[in-house]
Design goal:
Blueprint lengths: L1 H16 L15 H4 L29 H4 L10 H15 L9 H22 L1 H11 L9 H10 L12 H20 L4 H34 L3 H32 L1
Helix pairs in contact: 4-5, 5-6, 6-10, 8-9, 8-10, 9-10
The chain binds zinc ion (ZN).
């Protein structure tokens, strides 16, 4: 009796949730009791994540994060070959052509699952996006993605100021002077190869730093993936945030350099 009621409840909950099936960063990913014993809407047997393990029908999307969507643990060292294989296998099975004759609900769910699949794949395959996504899942916002900072900047009409990473202060100061000089020269129609060479060198050094930050980031991935207590994990996340913010800073700076050199 109790099992029967639970099954009926599962079905209702799954339907109610199918419209907003994705856990957004910051939202709690705690599984509700309704998801603990999922069963197929069509045949009633235990279902797999996306398809029923017995009858193969597409299931209503569950409110899960991208890692869970693929059945991965919330870890950053991710086998991208496995990710790609899973992506293509699921893409084929969820392809709209497969559901031409299917029940309306199943067709709608397959579309939803498909779009979630694409978003999840795009986010997880990219090391930087994957890291940013995990940070947001864990409640940490990147500087330039912080909604509050953006809204504040809009309200005051001020540009968001990025803090210069301390190890770059000197380099950035000098580079900005050179860029200013270059802009002046351009206005006057002058040409100074020595200045261009100087800026070119600074650009190269920044590009090297930008690339090196990826290794630094990956070292923190390792710490997060292996962390067994909350404070170790937290420390790794904070470090990742710092690395990503520095990386964004350098990327923006490089954009300025390229614009000035055009
Ligand atoms: Zn089934």
């Amino acid at each position: 009796m109790r099992a029967g009621r639970a099954l009926a409840l599962n079905f209702v909950m799954a339907n109610a949730e199918s419209k907003s099936s994705l856990i957004m960063p910051g939202q709690s990913a705690v599984e509700s009791p309704a998801e603990a014993t999922p069963s197929c809407w069509s045949c009633g047997t235990m279902r797999a994540v996306h398809f029923c393990s017995a009858c193969g029908k597409v299931q209503p999307p569950k409110p899960v994060d991208y890692f869970t969507f693929f059945g991965f643990p919330r870890k950053l060292n991710l086998d991208t070959a496995v990710l790609e294989k899973e992506f293509y296998a699921l893409s084929r099975r969820l392809h709209p052509d497969v559901f031409g004759q299917a029940d309306d609900r199943e067709r709608a769910w397959s579309l939803e699952q498909s779009s979630m699949l694409n978003d999840a794949y795009r986010t997880l395959k990219d090391p930087i996006k994957r890291t940013g996504y995990l940070l947001r899942l864990e409640g940490i916002e990147l500087e330039e993605q912080s909604k509050q900072a953006t809204e504040k900047a809009r309200a005051t009409g001020e540009l968001k100021k990025q803090v210069v990473p301390p190890d770059l202060l000197e380099e950035v100061f000098e580079l900005n002077m050179h860029l200013e000089e270059l802009r002046m020269q351009k206005k006057m129609g002058e040409d100074d190869p020595a200045l261009l060479e100087e800026i070119g060198k600074a650009k190269l050094s920044l590009e090297e730093k930008h690339d090196a930050l990826l290794s630094e980031l990956k070292a923190e991935w390792q710490k997060w993936d292996e962390s067994e207590d909350e404070s170790t994990g937290r420390k790794a996340l904070d470090k990742m945030l710092d690395v990503l913010n520095r990386r964004n800073y350098i990327r923006n700076l490089l954009r300025d350099v390229n614009e000035a050199m055009e």
